Amino acid sequence: MQKKIIALAVAGLVSGGALAQSSVKISGLLGATAVVNKFKGSGSTYAINNDGAKSNGLTFSGVEDLGGGLKATFVLSEGLDVLTGATGSSSSGATATGYNDFNRAANVGLAGAFGSVAVGRQTVPSFAAHGIANNFGFNSDGLVNFWANAAIVSGSANLLTGLNAPAPTNTSGGAKLPGAYVGGLGYSTPNFAGFKVNLFTTLGNNITGSSFNNNAMTDASLVYDNGTIGGVAAFNRTQNKVAANAVTGIFPANFAESKTRLFGLNYKTGPMKFTGGYVKQTYDPALAATNHDFSVWSVGASYAIGDMRYGIDYAVMKDSIVTANKAVGTNFYADYSFSKRTDVFAILAHVNNSGASIMTGMWKGPGLSRTGVLDARNGSNNTLGLGINHRF
User: Fold this and answer.
1) Is residue 336 scored above 60 in pLDDT?
2) Which residues lie closer than 8 Å to 71 by C-beta, 6 or more apart?
3) CA 87 to chain centroid
4) Closest alpha carbon to 118 in 212, 182, 35, 176
5) What's the rounded Cα separation, in Å, for the pair 144 and 305?
6) 119 pairs with which residues across the strands?
7) Which of 10, 175, 266, 310 has its CA 20 to 30 A from that of 96?
8) How far apart are CA 374 and CA 45, in angstroms?
9) Ordered DSSP codes for 106-154
10) Residue 292: which residues within 8 A CB-CB, separation 6 or more?
11) CA of 137: how far to CAs of 54, 69, 368, 371, in Å?
């Protein structure tokens, strides 16, 4: 991996000097959070959190001017773990072969007056859209934290239902966010009076690359932003067909399916910002034993004073099948910017859990044991996180 980074850095220097119409940019973010969780009727847990506020990562992006308004583009992006120094964070990929390096993006494309086209691994529109409904833009914001831990994160028990839910998505190689970063074909329209449409498809083929395994995905979003008002409506459908005939390549008639519908709004006025979001996740009846339909909604507000920014959000998540499973969370935020690149922050979160839910207010927070003494079911938990982010 180190050789790859050096080679790409050299390529960026060469392209910038030898070809005036080409450029390669290196960017990224590093951050860490010290976290303490306190569970009602039990003890506390402490940890250094890798992705509590923003997702750590390293990105190489390039543009070549082909003339006539046409440009060639590429993006290579991967997660970084500040605790281990490893690439390919557990949030956006695994350390298994094929998901190590550049797990968040590895695509090439064209851009021009027609919009932009990208082929390869990329963020699907529905997952990218949640930022419009998240007030503070942190991973621990109520909507994305609850939604991801109940639907998008794979390989572990659902934190709302307690079920080890095998969602019909891109889980090959152990990818942890299979519904967020996917290999396929993406298209974005130009901006029309604040409106933009984003489309994505795997063209009906498999996401995993495995022979005779079809995990087809289609995804779309309609985004509006005029600087004061922003909105989004997004839809994702993922189908799973397995065990095709090895001779004919024909898939069986039955398949499992999941659908995501996301709606979000934000409004900015002076130093104030208000947000609201709603996600409805549904599954094919064939998955009802392990995948429960559920919904999440959230509202939030933030206020900026100079280099300080304060915020609050309130989120509710409900299991549609076992209605006793429920999580209600309130998060408070404070962020101070030393510069455009560096900031320090504090997150204070409170979550009330009912039924089998063991949600906490911090993304990837410590102490999520379902069977040990730090069991949050049918109880509340409080989380405090203090951290720093640096962009480069």
Assistant:
1) yes
2) 63, 64, 65, 110, 111, 112
3) 17
4) 182
5) 26
6) 108, 185
7) 10
8) 8
9) EEEEEEETTEEEEEEEEE-HHHHTHHHH-SS--TTSHHHHHHIIIII--
10) 158, 160, 161, 163, 165, 283, 319, 320, 321, 322, 325
11) 8, 33, 23, 32
Alpha-carbon distance of 30 to 16, in angstroms, equals: 25
Per-position b or e across 50-86, b if 16+ CB within 10 A of its CB:
bbbbbbbbbbbbbbbeeeeeebebbbbbbbbbbeeee
Runs of H (alpha helix) within the chain: 2-18, 125-128, 130-133, 142-147
Under 8 Å between Cβ of 368 and 360: yes
Q: What are the tens digits of pLDDT across the range 78-92?
A: 888 888 787 764 444
Angstrom CA distances, 342 to 259, 336, 392, stand at: 38, 9, 9
Bigger pLDDT: 104 vs 193: 193
324-327: long-range contacts, CB 8 A cutoff, minimum separation 24: 324/354, 324/355, 324/356, 325/160, 325/161, 325/162, 325/292, 325/354, 325/355, 325/356, 325/357, 326/353, 326/354, 326/355, 326/357, 327/146, 327/160, 327/351, 327/352, 327/353, 327/354, 327/357, 327/359
Residue pair 338/23 in contact (Cβ under 8 Å)? The answer is: no
Q: Which of 294, 296, 306 is nearest to 343 (CA)?
A: 306
Give the pLDDT confidence of 243-283 residue by residue, as tens digits. 555 565 555 555 677 889 999 999 999 999 999 999 999 98
pLDDT at 156 over 70: no
CB 258 within 8 A of CB 287: yes
Closest CA to 135 of 306, 334, 307: 334
CA–CA gap between residue 17 and residue 124 (Å, rounded):
34
Q: Which CATH architecture has domain 2-8+22-391?
A: Beta Barrel (2.40)
Global pTM value: 0.84
In this structure, is the dihedral angle defined by the CA atoms of residues 122, 142, 80 and 30, taken in order, positive or negative?
Answer: positive
Domain ranges of the chain: 2-8+22-391
C-alpha separations of 46 from 215, 348, 361, 384 in Å: 38, 14, 14, 10
**Cα maximum dimension of the chain:** 67
Integer Cα distance of 123 and 59 in angstroms: 13
What tokens appear for 197 in the block?
A: 């449409």
Name the residue with tokens 């549609």: 320
Take residue 96 and report the two structure tokens written for it. Answer: 């298994």
- The encoded tokens of residue 176 equal 């942890």
